[in-house]
Model the fold of this input.
Amino acid sequence: MSDSFIIAIDGPAAAGKGTLSRGIAEQYGFHHLDTGLTYRAAAKALIDAGLPLDDETIAEKMAREVELTGLDRDILSRHEIGEAASKIAVMPAVRRALVEAQRRFSERPPGTVLDGRDIGTVVCPAAPVKLYVTASPEVRAKRRYDEIIGKGGSADFDAIFEDVKRRDDRDMNRADSPMKPANDAHLLDTSEMSIEAAFQAARSIIDAALSRNA
Ligand code: C5P
Done:
């Protein structure tokens, strides 16, 4: 039995799960791990060392060296790193290595929020709260586009839209731990919901689970 109350948050990129997860962790005083960063860190280590992205043994070695403390979103957010991460994320040995580290993290008291693609299904299947946060591919591509333009960059909506669909396809159709809602996950579709409304919906689900656990 663990002393940690685990909140599992899954869903595709740009559905709002990162903002939601950070807000929830802050609200409840829980530790937060964006598990996407663990795949990104392993991918970046390979790229920096000039190593191939298609050798499972080498990729597993890099995955085992990933330190969960100090994962920097700014450094790891680059587009090529996300692409490379989703390529090595299809490898079972890489997933095993990172899932072990993620499970150890999830045990930290008093509670943890883990966000990713397979938290409710594989990493923490016994989590008392599971949320699956999603939004249509168009809405997610538009959010990405607005974010880049908002930072003064230039972007091509159609290219971003294709990219979102390609990443979804790779994450949903891989053999090992495909992205999908757990049977007992609560679905939150943020296509037409503000982040504030999603946060309130999540809070009522979490509060109900906390009072059942008390
Ligand atoms: O969420 P983020 O875009 O940072 O994740 C990068 C990639 O890492 C995803 O596209 C996915 O392939 C992989 N990933 C995963 N399982 C997780 C988190 C991320 O396979 N729990």
